[in-house]
């Protein structure tokens, strides 16, 4: 009774064994099943991985993964979703009755729960061909994959464009994100899922700009005129005149207005110091009506006192 229960638990555990192939797709171990000469559980032996000498029988704990990867890859190419490995390396597939016969214990276990069938026994696997797993993320069949997904996090402003093809990652061109190299970006927006290049936010000196707004970013020896388009900053270097006499800078413009002639100004002069004090002006002041006679009397008094 205990042996029977242990055997059933072994079959249940087989459903949870997933293997990642060297090409990026995955397959799941379904269990070990008997086979018969007629009718066969699988209808076709589509490849013989045993002839490739993938197994080194002299090493204890046989590494069977190369055999499994080979059978899985050929099954995928032929559009088979389920395949069996029989007699240590024969790849069988086709039909839908892999469990036509009873469960068997006649399978060989290699390293890391990798199984192959012995004579008249199939170690059965199912391809999980609709998904690709890349850098901890799962992609569906037909999805575009960018590696790295977010170039800024990897300090590299470029990525490789790949696709998920029935569980296999196929990579092609490398995309360069040159737009962020052409001008200094103060706030980078990471690339969203399904995109390669990050973008630059409409942001300058702690201020966020809306679509259509413009601003300048003045740096030593260079100046950028920027515009917000679709919530992304686009900036261009402005080439200003090398020799600009009397430059006048205006807000919102990189290049100054040049004035050929200097503004007219008077020559500077110094007021000389005096050594004599002017005579005091005593009231009543000249020019006041009715005070002429009083002014004459005061002058006579001052003259007498001086004599």
Automatic annotation (TrEMBL):
Gene3D superfamilies: 6.20.200.20
InterPro entries attached to this UniProt entry: CRIM1, VWF_dom
SMART domains listed in its UniProt record: VWC
Residue span(s) of domain VWFC: 130-201, 200-259
Superkingdom of origin organism: Eukaryota
Gene Ontology cellular-component terms listed: plasma membrane
Region (Disordered): 279-307
Record field: compositional bias (Basic residues): 294-307
UniProt name for this protein: VWFC domain-containing protein
Organism: Desmophyllum pertusum
């Amino acid at each position: 009774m205990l042996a029977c229960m242990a055997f059933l638990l072994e079959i249940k555990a087989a459903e949870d064994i997933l293997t990642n192939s060297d090409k990026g797709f995955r397959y799941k171990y379904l269990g070990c099943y008997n086979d018969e000469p007629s009718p066969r559980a699988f209808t076709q032996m589509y490849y013989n991985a045993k002839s490739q000498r993938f197994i080194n029988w002299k090493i204890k704990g046989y590494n069977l993964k190369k055999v499994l990867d080979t059978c899985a890859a050929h099954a995928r190419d032929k559009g088979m979703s389920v395949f069996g490995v029989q007699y240590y390396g024969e790849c069988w597939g086709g039909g839908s009755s892999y469990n036509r016969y009873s469960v068997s214990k006649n399978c060989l276990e290699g390293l890391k729960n990798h199984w192959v069938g012995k004579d008249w026994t199939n170690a059965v696997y199912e391809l999980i061909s609709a998904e690709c797993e890349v850098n901890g993320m799962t992609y569906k069949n037909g999805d575009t994959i960018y590696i790295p997904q977010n170039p800024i996090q990897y300090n590299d402003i470029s990525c490789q464009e790949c696709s998920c093809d029935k569980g296999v990652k196929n990579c092609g061109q490398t995309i360069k994100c040159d737009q962020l190299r052409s001008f200094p970006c103060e706030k980078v927006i990471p690339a969203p899922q399904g995109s390669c290049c990050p973008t630059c936010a409409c942001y300058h000196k702690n201020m966020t700009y809306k679509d259509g707004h413009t601003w300048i970013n003045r740096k030593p020896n260079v100046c950028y005129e920027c515009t917000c388009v679709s919530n992304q900053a686009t900036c261009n270097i402005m080439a200003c005149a090398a020799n600009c006499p009397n430059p006048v800078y205006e807000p919102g413009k990189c290049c100054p207005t040049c004035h050929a002639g200097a503004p007219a100004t008077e020559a500077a002069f110094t007021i000389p110091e005096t050594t004599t004090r002017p005579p005091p002006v005593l009231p009543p002041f000249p020019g006041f009506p009715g005070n002429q006679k009083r002014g004459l009397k005061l002058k006579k008094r001052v003259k007498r006192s001086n004599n």
